[in-house]
Amino acid sequence: MALETKIYQKENNKSIFKLLGESLKDTYQSLFLARQLAVRDIKAQYRQSYLGILWAFITPLTTALVWIFLNSSGTIKLTDTGISYAFYAFSGALIWSILTEALKSPITSTVAAKSIMSKINFPKEALIVSGIFKMLFNTAIKVIILVVFLFVFKIELSWSLAFFPLVILGLAIFATTIGLFITPLGLLYKDVSKAIPIILQLLMYMTPVVYAIPKTGIMKTIMEANPLTPLVLNARNVFVGLELQFVEYSLWVIGISVPLFFISLVFYRVSIPIIVERMSA
Question: What is the structure's pLDDT at 1?
Answer without folding.
Answer: 46
